[in-house]
Amino acid sequence: MRIEINQKEFYEGIQTVSKAVSSKTTLPILSGILLKTEEDKLKVVGTDLEIGIECFIEAHIIKGGSIVLPAKYLTSIVRELPNEKIILTTEASNNTAQIKCDQAQFNIHGSPADEFPILPEIESGVRFTIKQNKFKEIIDQTKFAISKDESKPFLTGGLLIIEEGNIKLVSTDTYRLAYREDQINEKDISAEKVIIPNKTLNEIAKLLDNSEDLIEIIITENQILFKFSGVSIVSRLIEGQFPNYKQVIPNKNNTKVIVDKNELLSAAKRASLLAKKDSNIIKINLEKDKLIITSNAPEIGQAYEEVSISLVGQETEIAFNAIYLMDCLKVIDSEEVVLELLGSLSPGVIKSKSEDEYIYVIMPVRSA
Amino acid sequence: MRIEINQKEFYEGIQTVSKAVSSKTTLPILSGILLKTEEDKLKVVGTDLEIGIECFIEAHIIKGGSIVLPAKYLTSIVRELPNEKIILTTEASNNTAQIKCDQAQFNIHGSPADEFPILPEIESGVRFTIKQNKFKEIIDQTKFAISKDESKPFLTGGLLIIEEGNIKLVSTDTYRLAYREDQINEKDISAEKVIIPNKTLNEIAKLLDNSEDLIEIIITENQILFKFSGVSIVSRLIEGQFPNYKQVIPNKNNTKVIVDKNELLSAAKRASLLAKKDSNIIKINLEKDKLIITSNAPEIGQAYEEVSISLVGQETEIAFNAIYLMDCLKVIDSEEVVLELLGSLSPGVIKSKSEDEYIYVIMPVRSA
């Protein structure tokens, strides 16, 4: 291979695909990035066999070819090069690459490209599109509630549902559940329900920008493909039965409160400073026109916070893990939120007051 | 005590003094901050007995008093409060404090102020002043070469010398030595030579701003006092004999090179990526008009870098630990630097090309 490629574009491409490269892999070839010329572009690929990221970069191809180079060294070298033309030459006979740029020259040992796993080709399946900024928001509003508990693999991902022109993303760690619904561009496609791994959702959310450009998503039986901004991400899906989230979302309440999101978040944040270290419990008392948060860390002290509200229904009280409450307030984009309670021992519901359909269910804790 | 104090000013004050508070202390009172009314101000003090920081904050004193409050909780609570008036009330009978701000109220358990150590009062000694930005630069250009080796305490600080209207700060970890000289405002004061602990220099460099306001420094036999921007820092000095730095700085050379600092830094940074993991060795070859850096990490590959130079004297070669070379290039403020060499096995010297007197001595390593 012999190509000329711009440093900035090359760096962006290998940085993108290196997100799929695992630092701790038992298969040495997976710590590398595949570089392969295809027509007038350089294809770069990284994978840990769970997720694969592929990216095409504009390049002047003098002689075609392919090689696998160590991701860590390749990215750190290209990052430090000046923003000029890089000449990349590989020698198939001994699997080495030469990177030349300005007065700098690097020789790196690589591996033959045919040892690198081939990403599955996904062409048919349930296909739909949605704006990048919208899909990013959907992920950001739900991913934090995904379970880290590997003993229940079906909770370690987000449940993606496509039905009747709508997209739904649901996540739960059994202490709280986050649900977000929106529209997709395609109205007449088959219904689908799959569980996407946490890592995949996280990496996609990082790579998506805030533009209204479309992301294309294709779902097959075992895999899901995301295509946007010249990047393709293919990920395995998680097998298993996701819990029936509809049963978890309460459909009645005795108390309904409208409260300023930022005021509630600030008050919860401060009160959490004096919550007990292990449980993080804060108590919430709902009165006619105010919400009172209290906490008590016996050795340290107590906190008392008041926030103005408008309340419909019964006055009540409930206790939450402060972190679970703050997690959702940080990602809701409306100025006000709605808090719905049935009683002190029933799950609380927090909803966005914007047009977006966002529901967050949070289990109460018994306060001492 | 009962006072009214502005949130922002209160937070800045306790944040400043909390830099002296050690998180791991065997004396519980030292994890706290002393708050004490003095005339129309609130004095706040933090100390780990090695270094003490004291700061005065404007406050409306309704009733005088004093208390010690846990630094960690006090700073995190005050940080999260809105930028409004805080009412701080303490109850001497049970050593508690109440912090009220807007709709938030905190009760915190504290300790009696008389259990808090008293910082030494320093009034007489060798006294001089220098601009804050200048003193910050002097520290930043030398502190990174201070030894971390606790078995040689006299190397774990910077040597401060005052003589003939000049200030000198010297540091060494025996692998390299950094020397910076400048003028002070006072010409006729007694000569002094003391070793200031690394932590003290680091905290001062963080607190100094880039203004031309003066910092006042008073040196006594065992202590040093720094006063600037309403903050007083008193620190113990390190006992022992600092090595004779004049003997370490070479006074002759066979090769003198002028090189662009940023080009040399970039080239060294890239070459270091392929230096051997443990030794970080890069080789430097000096030819008539170019400086060549090479490195070799046997399993990974090789790097080759060229930088244009002007050379006077003999062509030669030398090998350095790349990190030691980069450390000094990062803090020199001139566009070009001067590299002086006597031979491959003698210490190299790097000097700033600006008017500031800066000398950096770096020991060569034997390259394989």
Automatic annotation (TrEMBL), chains A, B:
<dbReference type="InterPro" id="IPR022637">
    <property type="entry name" value="DNA_polIII_beta_cen"/>
</dbReference>
<dbReference type="GO" id="GO:0003887">
    <property type="term" value="F:DNA-directed DNA polymerase activity"/>
</dbReference>
<keyword id="KW-0963">Cytoplasm</keyword>
<keyword id="KW-0548">Nucleotidyltransferase</keyword>
<comment type="subunit">
    <text>Forms a ring-shaped head-to-tail homodimer around DNA.</text>
</comment>
<keyword id="KW-0238">DNA-binding</keyword>
<dbReference type="GO" id="GO:0005737">
    <property type="term" value="C:cytoplasm"/>
</dbReference>
<dbReference type="InterPro" id="IPR046938">
    <property type="entry name" value="DNA_clamp_sf"/>
</dbReference>
<dbReference type="InterPro" id="IPR001001">
    <property type="entry name" value="DNA_polIII_beta"/>
</dbReference>
<dbReference type="GO" id="GO:0006271">
    <property type="term" value="P:DNA strand elongation involved in DNA replication"/>
</dbReference>
<dbReference type="InterPro" id="IPR022634">
    <property type="entry name" value="DNA_polIII_beta_N"/>
</dbReference>
<dbReference type="Pfam" id="PF02767">
    <property type="entry name" value="DNA_pol3_beta_2"/>
</dbReference>
<dbReference type="GO" id="GO:0008408">
    <property type="term" value="F:3'-5' exonuclease activity"/>
</dbReference>
<feature type="domain" description="DNA polymerase III beta sliding clamp C-terminal">
    <location>
        <begin position="246"/>
        <end position="366"/>
    </location>
</feature>
<dbReference type="Pfam" id="PF00712">
    <property type="entry name" value="DNA_pol3_beta"/>
</dbReference>
<dbReference type="GO" id="GO:0009360">
    <property type="term" value="C:DNA polymerase III complex"/>
</dbReference>
<dbReference type="GO" id="GO:0003677">
    <property type="term" value="F:DNA binding"/>
</dbReference>
<comment type="function">
    <text>Confers DNA tethering and processivity to DNA polymerases and other proteins. Acts as a clamp, forming a ring around DNA (a reaction catalyzed by the clamp-loading complex) which diffuses in an ATP-independent manner freely and bidirectionally along dsDNA. Initially characterized for its ability to contact the catalytic subunit of DNA polymerase III (Pol III), a complex, multichain enzyme responsible for most of the replicative synthesis in bacteria; Pol III exhibits 3'-5' exonuclease proofreading activity.</text>
</comment>
<keyword id="KW-0235">DNA replication</keyword>
<comment type="similarity">
    <text>Belongs to the beta sliding clamp family.</text>
</comment>
<keyword id="KW-0808">Transferase</keyword>
<dbReference type="InterPro" id="IPR022635">
    <property type="entry name" value="DNA_polIII_beta_C"/>
</dbReference>
<dbReference type="Pfam" id="PF02768">
    <property type="entry name" value="DNA_pol3_beta_3"/>
</dbReference>
<keyword id="KW-0239">DNA-directed DNA polymerase</keyword>
<feature type="domain" description="DNA polymerase III beta sliding clamp N-terminal">
    <location>
        <begin position="1"/>
        <end position="120"/>
    </location>
</feature>
<feature type="domain" description="DNA polymerase III beta sliding clamp central">
    <location>
        <begin position="129"/>
        <end position="244"/>
    </location>
</feature>
<protein>
    <recommendedName>
        <fullName>Beta sliding clamp</fullName>
    </recommendedName>
</protein>
